[in-house]
Design the sequence.
């Protein structure tokens, strides 16, 4: 499963607003038409080559995924400590490590759009939203809700050693990587059946958030993993599921870091056509994450329908950080610099340099739009950490919180337009920017009520 931008009907195709740009429905996300830069810029001597820009892009990606892998390994150690000695302290440490692991990973999402290899892989690590009842116990109200769309939405593999999904009997007596990956993840062709990745782990660490748009996150007790003083049953299987899903996350991230290494297939792909293929991927990522995905699916949709189920990190109330670090990832790629977990920097020729060589004015405008987005994101992040969580901000009777979220959406929309201007300036063909009904055709979401 991928994010809602790929799985919902809330996506629209828009006509071109700039040369070489197409708004499209979620699949496919990549159109690798040939990329041809216009005549040499007025200050051609200062302009980097597409190869140089794409090399920086690949270098940042390799470092960013390597950091995501390191952070996942650190998370794994905290989870091992939790399972060895369940307590409030070890559970809190594991939760903190999960939140820390999201910081580098969310910066990588700019690479997903425009790189088919990444997009095809992404559902293994960041699939959402998920029907958590597939994994473990849930509230009675959830368990008794309508099951027509997904028969496995409350099947609870942790409590049941034999399952039947889509007419197939599944032996779940042992929680193994094969069970999670081959039998449960997207079982029955339903993308909400998520058994691997950050959000499966998040649910196991926090449990359901039953507070709606009220205060509070999930509140799973540490004793849910305590084999001697077990609460809610099946603590051994719950521990096994958490252990296996965490190992899979570590393995998947290591694999992707390798794909961006010097000999990796993802790097080879973006270096094709003298680096011009990388410019298509780069701008597809900048535009699609900014507009259709972040502004649209991850923010505007939830705000429009005031639904906490539409927040990204819904069990932990960490959505503000996920949004913030998405924006940081966008800035990294435009400016050609990434700060690693150890504080060192990966930097080089950037698309900012390329734009500035042709139009210093447009480059300044784009940088200003990115700065404006980061300012609004910082305000949202600060509010989440000091006043109220993101799911409270999008609540129906919270005009002040709604306005904070909308201000970020507005800034992202402006930012997206400046990226389209850059694509037109550089005369890059083949960029397909993801749209969203939430932004482009809100009446399709609200049934005609745009308010």
Sequence:
């Amino acid at each position: 499963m991928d994010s809602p931008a790929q799985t919902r009907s809330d996506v629209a195709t828009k006509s071109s607003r700039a040369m070489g740009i197409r708004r499209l429905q979620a699949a496919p996300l990549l159109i690798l038409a040939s990329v041809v830069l216009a005549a040499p810029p007025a200050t051609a001597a200062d302009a980097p080559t597409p190869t140089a820009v794409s090399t920086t892009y690949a270098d940042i990606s390799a470092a960013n995924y390597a950091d995501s892998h390191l952070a996942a390994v650190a998370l794994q150690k905290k989870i091992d400590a939790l399972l060895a000695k369940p307590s409030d302290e070890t559970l809190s440490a594991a939760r903190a490590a999960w939140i820390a692991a999201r910081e580098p990973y969310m910066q990588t999402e700019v690479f997903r759009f425009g790189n088919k290899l990444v997009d095809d892989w992404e559902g293994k690590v960041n699939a959402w939203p998920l029907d958590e009842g597939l994994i473990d116990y849930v509230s009675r109200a959830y368990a008794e809700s309508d099951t027509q769309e997904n028969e496995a939405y409350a099947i609870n593999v942790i409590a049941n050693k034999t399952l039947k999904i889509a007419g197939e009997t599944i032996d779940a007596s042992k929680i193994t990587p094969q069970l999670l990956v081959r039998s449960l993840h997207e079982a029955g062709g339903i993308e909400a059946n998520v058994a691997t990745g950050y959000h499966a782990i998040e649910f196991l660490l926090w449990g359901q958030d039953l507070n709606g748009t009220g205060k509070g996150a999930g509140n799973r007790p540490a004793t849910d993993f305590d084999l001697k003083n077990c609460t809610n049953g099946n603590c051994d299987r719950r521990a096994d599921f958490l252990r296996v899903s965490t190992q899979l996350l570590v393995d998947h991230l290591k694999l992707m870091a390798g794909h961006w290494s010097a000999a990796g297939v993802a790097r080879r792909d973006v270096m094709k056509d003298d680096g011009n293929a990388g410019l298509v991927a780069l701008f597809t990522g900048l535009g699609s994450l900014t507009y259709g995905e972040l502004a649209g699916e991850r923010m505007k949709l939830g705000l429009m329908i005031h639904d906490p189920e539409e927040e990204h990190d819904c069990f932990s109330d960490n959505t503000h950080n996920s949004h913030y670090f998405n924006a940081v990832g966008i800035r990294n790629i435009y400016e050609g610099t990434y700060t690693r977990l150890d504080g060192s920097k990966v930097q080089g020729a950037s698309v900012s340099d390329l734009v500035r060589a042709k139009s210093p004015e447009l480059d300044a405008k784009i940088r200003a739009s990115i700065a404006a987005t980061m300012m609004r994101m910082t305000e949202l992040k600060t509010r989440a950490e000091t006043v109220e969580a993101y799911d409270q901000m999008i609540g129906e009777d919270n005009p002040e919180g709604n306005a904070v979220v909308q201000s970020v959406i507005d800034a992202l929309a402006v930012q997206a337009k400046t990226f389209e201007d850059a694509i037109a300036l550089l005369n890059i063909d083949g960029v397909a920017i993801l749209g969203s009904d939430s932004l482009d055709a809100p009446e399709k979401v609200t049934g005609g009520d745009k308010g």
Observations:
- Residues 50-84 form the longest helix (35 residues).
- DSSP finds 17 helices and six strands in the chain.
